[in-house]
Design goal:
Distance between the termini of chain A: 22 Å
Helix content of chain B: over 70%
Largest sheet of chain B: none
Number of strands of chain B: 0
Distance between the termini of chain B: 76 Å
Oligomer: heterodimer
Order of helices and strands of chain B: HHHHHH
Strand content of chain B: under 5%
Helix content of chain A: over 70%
Radius of gyration of chain A: 21 Å
Structural class of chain A: mainly alpha
């Protein structure tokens, strides 16, 4: 029941927030407590109840839904998906706590939607039935539509429509693929799926995940959505929800369609390489804080896809580690963007500057996260990117050259962001009275930064506890345990 | 292939010697009050300028990396991202709206229009079947 409990904690929390006639001031604290309860449960699960030496599915729960079609409520956790669930509950807790701190209109609706989003995302990482996976995958869209469409910025409706249209178009292709695959194999159970050589079914999945990640050129929804959503929603969108796409590629596409992966490796690596450099260049010249982080996020997701499609131990380990890294980094950066916007009423870099003066905590946080983001040696990002480049080098040295160029660009755009916000002359939009990060803000961003520092000291904490130590073989064996 | 012990020690000693020589030279020039810096500047202004500009590494990086990246980034946003990706859905939506308006205009509400459309559709299908045979 552990996995089901992990999914139900935020979902039940959302239900209670919506149904129970709380006093208005109680809603947000209850949502924060719920998210921390989920985090605590995950910590307990990981520390005491997860046997990393035993491969295969853990904490499996199954309930038959439609026996004739082989559809069931089946959930469970692999060692690698455990880390992604941990990322989800940690970032969700930080995001919900930030929303509590910032204060949002109509808190009952807002916090209920955030909790629902958390539950649906955990469900994606835990689902072991294709139909259930699809249900959770689509269920993430519902709260996003409302959160951005109602609480977003001035251009929120355009951003929301773009996000929904892009994602639905991809998801519908995935639905067709799921139905055809499940019916042809006689089961929708992801642990019992055999291999398939169908190009069209593979592309249905690949396009859906390419839109969600997003991979270039399917990223049209990203800039507006990341700019218009509230900062904590953007943190979730960039930090966690984009990882469901990478997870889908890893859990479904790679093991089920190995021949198609080999056939389409070069085109996918080309698109990912273009996106990596393109996203980095646009991040370098983005005019606002969120633009820099948004395009950086796009570039990093392309790098993760490169690692996945290298499809060897090094690439897969690097991709998983970078999924966790990027989740923490982008969540921290978007929360910091929110703190900057609260103080300066804008994120335009031309109007910012000099914010380090009298704000040492903000400076420390932004530089700390930024330096790790640009993959300085000994950081966890460096470890992940090195693994990815090492993995893709085996597929061709040219791919690694592109990756190296992108690392240089990453240093450029991240240092530009740091310098434009913190250094130089004080920006016209920065009031002299703007305060440094408050204790709550420091704690939330600091928690994510502590996670990054811990991973920098011990990246093997994840890579040695994922895929049973043999990533490529585990994926090829379709995650079957011993 | 690791450097041999001799190579290692020679490199180490040479590096140390150069570093110490540099510090000594700096002290001779600037550490005690002398006219040496002015004399060096007058005799070899180009050398002083190059050293003050750190052998023009910053300018080289600027020319090789910063400016091309900046131009590419701005061009990418102006000629690719904005027109192709950010406005694409708006163009698509506008096209759908236009097509809907035209289809809506074709809805006359007259039975004879729909009968004519049906007859035309049947005629096309008949031609297709005949040709396929």
């Amino acid at each position: 029941m552990h996995t089901t409990i992990l999914i139900l904690i935020p979902l039940l929390g959302a239900l209670l927030v919506w149904i129970v006639p709380w006093p208005r001031d109680w809603v947000a604290p209850f949502a924060v407590l719920t998210s921390f309860a989920a985090l605590a449960f995950w910590i307990g699960l990981t520390a005491s109840n997860f046997d990393f030496d035993r491969g295969g599915l853990h904490h499996e729960d199954e309930l038959t839904w439609v026996a004739d079609l082989g559809i069931a409520y089946k959930v469970g956790l692999y060692d690698f998906s455990l880390w992604l669930v941990g990322l989800t509950v940690l970032v969700s807790a930080a995001a919900i706590a930030y929303a509590f701190w910032a204060g949002r209109e109509r808190p009952r609706a807002y916090f209920g939607l955030l909790l629902f989003l958390e539950g649906a995302t955990v469900g994606v990482f835990a689902a072991q039935d294709l139909i259930l996976f699809y249900v959770f995958f689509e269920a993430m869209l519902i709260p996003l539509y409302v959160l951005i469409g109602v609480w977003g910025g001035p251009n929120r409706m355009a951003a929301t429509v773009k996000l929904i249209v892009y994602t639905l178009a991809g998801s519908l292709l995935m639905l067709v693929s799921i139905i055809v695959l499940g019916l042809s194999q006689g089961t929708f159970d992801m642990t019992e799926l055999g291999r398939s050589g169908s190009t069209w079914i593979f592309l249905g999945f690949a396009v859906a995940f390419a839109v969600k990640a997003p991979l270039w050129p399917f990223h049209g929804w990203l800039p507006d959505a990341y700019r218009e959503a509230p900062p904590e929603v953007t943190a979730l969108l960039s930090g966690v929800i984009s990882k469901t796409a990478a997870y889908g590629l890893l859990r479904i596409a790679l093991p089920t369609f190995p021949e198609n992966v080999a056939d389409w490796r070069v085109p996918v690596l080309v698109l990912a390489s273009i996106g990596l450099v393109y996203g980095s260049l646009l991040a370098f010249r983005a005019p606002d804080v969120r633009g820099v982080v948004a395009y950086s996020s796009h570039a990093q997701m392309c790098l993760i896809v490169i690692g996945l499609f290298a499809f060897n131990d090094s690439g897969l380990n690097g991709a998983l580690l970078q999924m966790v890294n990027h989740g923490l980094i982008s969540a921290a950066l978007f929360l910091l963007a929110g703190t900057i916007e609260r103080r300066a009423a804008t994120g335009e870099l031309a109007l910012l500057g000099g914010m380090a003066r009298g704000r040492p905590i903000l400076a420390t946080m932004l530089i700390g996260v930024g330096v790790i983001a640009l993959a300085v040696p000994f950081s966890t990002s460096f470890a992940a990117e090195f693994l990815i480049l090492n993995g893709v080098f085996e597929r061709g040295w040219g791919w690694a050259v592109v990756g190296v160029v992108a690392i240089v660009l990453a240093a450029m755009y991240m240092l530009r962001l740091i310098s434009a916000v913190l250094h130089q002359d004080v920006g016209s939009a920065v009031p002299r009275a703007a305060l440094d990060l408050r204790p709550v803000e420091t704690t939330l961003v600091g928690a994510l930064l502590v996670g990054l520092v811990a991973l920098s000291l011990w990246p093997a904490g994840i890579t040695d506890r994922a895929f049973g130590g043999q990533p490529a073989r585990t994926v090829e064996a379709q995650f079957d345990g011993p | 292939e690791e450097a041999s012990g001799t190579t290692f020690w020679v490199s180490l000693v040479a590096t140390l010697a150069l570093s110490i020589a540099g510090i000594a030279l700096a002290w001779l020039l600037y550490g005690r009050r002398s006219d040496a810096p002015r004399r060096v500047r007058s005799r070899a202004p180009w050398a002083v300028r190059a050293l003050e500009h750190k052998l023009y590494w910053d300018e080289a990086y600027d020319t090789a990396f910063y400016r091309p990246s900046s131009r590419l980034g701005l061009a990418g946003r102006r000629f690719v991202e904005d027109p192709l990706f950010l406005r694409s859905l708006g163009v698509l939506g506008g096209g759908v709206r236009g097509a809907s308006a035209r289809v809506a205009a074709a809805q006359t509400g007259l039975v004879r229009s729909y009968v004519l459309a049906l007859a035309a559709g049947v005629a096309v299908m008949a031609v297709v079947f005949v040709l396929a045979r």
